[in-house]
Amino acid sequence: MVEPQLVEIGGASYIYRCTHRIMEGDCQMEHGPIEVRVGPLWAQKYAVSNFMYYEFVRESGYRPMNDRNFLKHWESGKYRPGEEDLPVVNISQDDARAYADFYGMRLPTEHEWQYLAAGPGHLKYPWGNKKEYARCNTYGTELHPVDSHPDGDSPFGLRNMCGNVWEFTGETMYDGNRDHYFLTLRGGSYYTAPDYWHAECGIVPNDCHLKVHLLGDAMNRFGTAGFRCVKERE
Amino acid sequence: MIRHDADAGTVTVQNNALRAVISYGRGAVFREFSNILSRRTTNADRDMFVLNIRGRDLASGDFDVTSVRTARDEVLELVTVYMEHPGEDLKVRVHLINDNDKTITVLFQVWDGYKLGVPSAVTMHIPLLANLEAGGASEDRYYPSGIAPTKKGADAMIPMTEGFCGSDILLPLVVCDAEEKFGFSVQFPTMSDLNDAGATQNVNKQLASISNERELACHRLGINPDPSFNDTVELRISGISGGWAEAFSDCRDAWQSLYDFSEYEREDLRWFSRGAVHNFVFLYGREGFDHEKQEIDVDGLLAAGDEFGGYDTVTIWNQYPRLGVDARTQWDFYDDFPGGRAALREAVKKFHDRGVRVFLPYIPWDRGGGETTEGMGDELARIATDTDADGFQLDTMRDLPYSYRKKLDAVRPGLVLTAQHHPLKKRPVEFITTSWDEFWRADPMPEADVFRFMCPHHISPAISRWLRTEDKTVLIRRCEFGASPIVVWQDIFGRWMPYSAEQKERIKTWKRTYLKYREIYQGSRPIPLVPTRTGGVYCNLFTGDAAGGRIYSFYNDNDEDCVVKNFSVSGEKIDNAKIVLGDGEASPEGGILTVGMAAHEVVHVLVTGQPAH
């Protein structure tokens, strides 16, 4: 069983710039370039696993108001045997926040997530600047354990920040104009939808995010999106 | 009538409108090709064709005429001139098919014996076509892809094309006198959808792409003969006495005659044609969704629609660009939508209670693992059952398996299919009864959508997505000019692109006008781009099938106000004229119309009186 583990991240400033990935409609938020300050932080080495989330549910009694699609891959309130170390999915950003809050943590901001993945060297991918499929779980058929692919660690030693599961960041965006609520997903996933018009998956560079419009809890729980947390460090 | 004088070496073919005289001996030429209604002898001494092969030009006069045969039956008369060029191992048959009314079809069939053992490149030039003359002091010319040039040099008529394949809507070459009466219409019939000349024997598609005088005069058609006589080029030449209007009308009749439009007669589908302003709502924004209540905001959406004169339909969009993050399909999204299908059904009922019909999306490219074509059709039918929606918007589509139509009919009558793009092919045109007239240009005027005029019972609301303020005004003008409904789309997948108050008011006015004169605007015989004799002014003609007058839609593309004087379509007498849309003045003096209009404005004039043809 993979246990939660925190990695120390020193405080730093860097020039943040991000590109959005969406077929049409654009992404109404700050993409930089802009100087930002990150940390100091503790960051989870691994994405939250089924086991970790199960422990959270057991300890907290958490149940969302609208539970459609919530942990729908579990059976009888628990993950299936053998899936304990797979990243938890079918949770919304709010479900992820609930986990983080319970343990005194939070979801990383856009700036933080990108820094955790790319490091101070602005790496294109967590492991370097070249697309190397073997270092992550991409174009695959199933989730891999959260501690898999050690060759793909980010400069801070964070695991699987590219591929396997998309990761939620902390912001819920609101464009203030016509009430569009959206979030961004980071890192790509193992899954690749079949058509050009589908959302792009596969290996996603550290400085890209996918805009996802929000429309109710059931819609907002994905079979390919998980999360990891950070917490402040004195 | 055919008169063959073997001694003189001439054959004359004549009907009610045309006379063609062929002179043959060594080689063959057109001695004349005339519209006898004009009492002019025209197109004298033209080679029938010029072939170029292996670097040599070979005119019909260079061929040996081996025989000239005539035949007739109860309807048609036929003249066939056989020619050979032994030196190049080429044979040509030129047929003149007389319908004994107003058309003579000139059909060329080229046979190539592959002199070198392999096919050589061959081009064909047709002098009769290259310099077709109507006679008279001056002439009007309408090129198949250049009906009405705009200031920018484009054609105001928007064709039906899509890359490698196209539709079978090919416009004619029309040459007539400046009085818009006598002359010729040349149609280019072909049953091939391919734009690729190499894959077809009949190369009429190339002729239909001619857009100007130079292209016509210098045309060199790449042809693909082999050692068989098959159709190479077919010119369906008619003698006209009503100018462009008659020629276009004939072309439409010929095109429609090959189609079964019975689906359009279905009473249960006609509700769509009674609408004028449609809405496309991206459900992730506030325009149509209440995020606090987590439900579709029917009242809010329709209240906003009132500013446009009221929405007649709404298309509820909750799919793209969200699909594909995980393996959920469009069918799952219907379930995962807040409240699921039951909530959608409840919203649809609210819309129905307000007299508004509802479309839902069908996303053909979102095929889940293991889904089959027929299975997706079943799912579509299930959505119709579960939500009580009135139809489907066919995302990205020009086509749909016909079985889907039958599956929807089995759910209940009245379910309308509207494709994102005009259907191009015959069968889809026959059963997909509506589509969007979507365009992407920021400057879409002056334009006439050829499908709107060739298939006027196929109602196509105009829509464009990224147009900004000024361009949206042009979009509205385009709807007015082409007398088409409009789709109001303001939330472009998350970017809010609203209409101004003034534009909303203008759409409201257009809706009122469109519905008041709907029987005229939706008449079966509209004519696009009738000549105005005034530079920069374009005009479409809409005629109701029942009495009630006709409406001329003028657009002034000039930067200044202008007056169209002495306007009439050949043969009509105008008793009364009234402006029914736009700012302008109209007066019928001596049965002829004078219309004044502001710069870049659309003006509709309702006239009564003796129509033209």
Key features of this structure:
heterodimer, A: 234 residues, alpha+beta, paralog of FGE (formylglycine-generating enzyme), six-stranded mixed beta sheet, three-stranded antiparallel beta sheet, 11 strands, 13% helix, globular, B: 613 residues, TIM Barrel, eight-stranded antiparallel beta sheet, 14 helices
- Strand elements of chain A, count: 11
Shape of chain B: globular
Q: Greatest interface and its residue counts? A: A-B, 42 and 36 residues
Overall residue-averaged pLDDT value of chain B:
94
**What's the total helix number of chain A?**
3
Enumerate the spans of chain A where pLDDT stays under 50 for 5 or more consecutive residues: none
The largest β sheet of chain B comes out as: 8 strands, antiparallel
Level-2 CATH architecture of the largest domain in chain B: Distorted Sandwich
Average the pLDDT over all residues of chain A and give the rounded result: 95
Question: Would you write up a description of this structure?
Answer:
The complex is a heterodimer of chains A (234) and B (613). Chain A has 234 residues and is α+β, with helices and mostly antiparallel strands. Chain A has a single domain (1-234), classed as paralog of FGE (formylglycine-generating enzyme) (Alpha-Beta Complex), CATH 3.90.1580. Chain A has helices at residues 50-60, 93-102, 110-118; strands at residues 6-9, 12-16, 19-21, 34-38, 41-44, 166-168, 173-174, 181-186, 208-213, 225-226, 230-232. In chain A, strands 3, 6, 7, 8, 9 and 10 form a 6-stranded mixed beta sheet that branches. Chain A has a 3-stranded antiparallel beta sheet with strand order 1-5-11, with no helix packed on it. The longest helix of chain A is centred in the N-terminal third of the chain and has 11 residues, at 50-60. Chain A is globular and about 45 Å long. The model of chain A has no long low-confidence stretch (mean pLDDT 95). Chain B is of the alpha+beta class and 613 residues long. Chain B folds into 3 domains: 2-256, Beta-galactosidase, Chain A, domain 5, CATH 2.70.98; 262-516, TIM Barrel (Alpha-Beta Barrel), CATH 3.20.20.80; 537-608, Immunoglobulin-like (Sandwich). In chain B, 21% of the residues lie in helices and 33% in strands. Chain B has an 8-stranded antiparallel beta sheet with strand order 8-9-10-11-20-18-17-13, with helices on one face. In chain B, a hairpin with a 6-residue loop joins strand 35 and strand 36 (550-556). In chain B, helix 8 runs parallel beside helix 9 (402-411) and helix 12 runs parallel beside helix 13. The A-B interface holds A 22-28, 68-69, 166, 175, 177-182, 185, 189, 191, 193-201, 210-216, 218-219, 222-225 and B 283-287, 289, 291, 294, 318, 320-328, 333, 335-338, 340, 363, 365-367, 369, 396, 491-496.
